[in-house]
């Protein structure tokens, strides 16, 4: 099955340009770690990105929480992405009709499409959300992840909702590279969606607001996901960011090596 294949092999087989790039990078850099940097200061975001840069395949941002956002932040993130060889994922969670998300993706203060290699969207509005985002993103060689599941307790994205999300993705394989989900969702011959999983922690079981953590071994090994997304486990209060980044990188990679043939 595809989960037994190496990232490098999947890069070769992939029909989605961004998945190919992502799998290539993961194989080359030997990391399936994405760090989620939820901080509100530009300087802090850049500092953490520079520190974790050598250990990650993907930097996940929430650009709208940065209080002193400016275009220089974008320039610096792009520079760090080049310096350390990682991609950038703006976790925007678009959820509106096609015509509105076109504008939210391309315009406003953040102009997400101009710098984020990857973004994501809720399937809740129906397929128009993909059509809208694709019209902006595909010409720029961007990729989209659909939110098929969430890590938080009581999430409504389950069952037939998750199934319908997979069907939507299948109709847009040029732009939809995969899913945010807690496990691999499909193993059809001839298709390979990348799976990225938030809600990963080695020390805690969750937080006080519904977040639930599982270990890299559960997520990558048992559940067949491809990328672990880790936030506070790495940059949380009192943590040594570099030490934790290495620790999660090693745990994610060991789980991956344990599952490939
Ligand atoms: N995130 C989740 N769960 C989800 C989705 C996104 O936690 O289902 I979709 C985001 C929220 C935060 C990061 O930016 O992933 C996880 O951060 P912590 O590792 O600090 O919980």
Automatic annotation (TrEMBL):
- Alphabetically list the UniProt keywords: Decarboxylase, Lyase, Pyrimidine biosynthesis
Query: Recorded E.C. number(s)?
Result: 4.1.1.23
Annotated Gene Ontology MF terms?
orotate phosphoribosyltransferase activity; orotidine-5'-phosphate decarboxylase activity
PROSITE patterns per the UniProt record, alphabetical: OMPDECASE
Domain Orotidine 5'-phosphate decarboxylase: from-to ranges? 32-247
- Which residues are substrate-binding? 38, 60, 151, 211, 231-232
Q: Does the keyword Metal-binding apply?
A: no
Biological-process GO terms, alphabetical: 'de novo' pyrimidine nucleobase biosynthetic process; 'de novo' UMP biosynthetic process
The entry assigns this protein to a family as follows:
Belongs to the OMP decarboxylase family.
List, from the UniProt record, the residues annotated as the active site of this protein: 91, 93, 96
What catalytic reaction does the record list?
A: orotidine 5'-phosphate + H(+) = UMP + CO2
What is the designated name of this protein?
Orotidine 5'-phosphate decarboxylase
Concerning PANTHER family, the annotation shows: OROTATE PHOSPHORIBOSYLTRANSFERASE (PTHR19278), URIDINE 5'-MONOPHOSPHATE SYNTHASE (PTHR19278:SF9)
| Organism per entry | Saitoella complicata (strain BCRC 22490 / CBS 7301 / JCM 7358 / NBRC 10748 / NRRL Y-17804)
InterPro entries referenced in this protein's UniProt entry, alphabetically: Aldolase_TIM, OMPdecase, OMPdecase_AS, OMPdeCOase_dom, RibuloseP-bd_barrel
Functional pathway: Pyrimidine metabolism; UMP biosynthesis via de novo pathway; UMP from orotate: step 2/2
Lineage top rank: taxon: Eukaryota
């Amino acid at each position: 099955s595809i989960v037994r294949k190496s990232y490098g092999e999947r890069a070769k087989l992939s029909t989605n340009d961004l998945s190919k790039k992502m799998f290539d990078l993961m194989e080359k850099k030997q990391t399936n770690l994405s760090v989620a940097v939820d901080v509100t200061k530009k300087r802090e975001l850049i500092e953490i990105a520079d520190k974790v840069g050598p250990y990650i395949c993907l930097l996940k941002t929430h650009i709208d929480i940065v209080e002193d956002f400016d275009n220089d932040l974008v320039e610096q993130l792009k520079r760090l992405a080049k310096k350390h060889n990682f991609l950038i994922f703006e976790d925007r969670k678009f959820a509106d009709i096609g015509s509105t998300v076109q504008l939210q993706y391309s315009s406003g203060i953040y102009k997400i499409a101009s710098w984020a290699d990857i973004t994501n969207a809720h399937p809740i509005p129906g397929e128009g959300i993909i059509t809208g985002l694709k019209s902006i993103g595909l010409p720029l060689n961007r990729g989209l992840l659909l939110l098929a599941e969430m890590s938080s307790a009581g999430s409504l994205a389950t069952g037939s909702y998750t199934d319908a999300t997979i069907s939507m993705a299948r109709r847009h394989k040029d732009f939809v590279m995969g899913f945010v989900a807690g496990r691999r969702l499909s193993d059809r011959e001839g298709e390979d969606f990348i799976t990225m999983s938030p809600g990963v922690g080695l020390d805690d079981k969750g937080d006080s607001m519904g977040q639930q953590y599982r270990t890299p071994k559960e997520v990558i090994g048992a559940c067949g996901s491809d990328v672990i997304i880790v936030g506070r486990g790495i940059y949380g209060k009192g943590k040594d960011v570099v030490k934790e980044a290495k620790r999660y990188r090693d745990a994610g990679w060991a789980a991956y090596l344990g599952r490939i043939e």
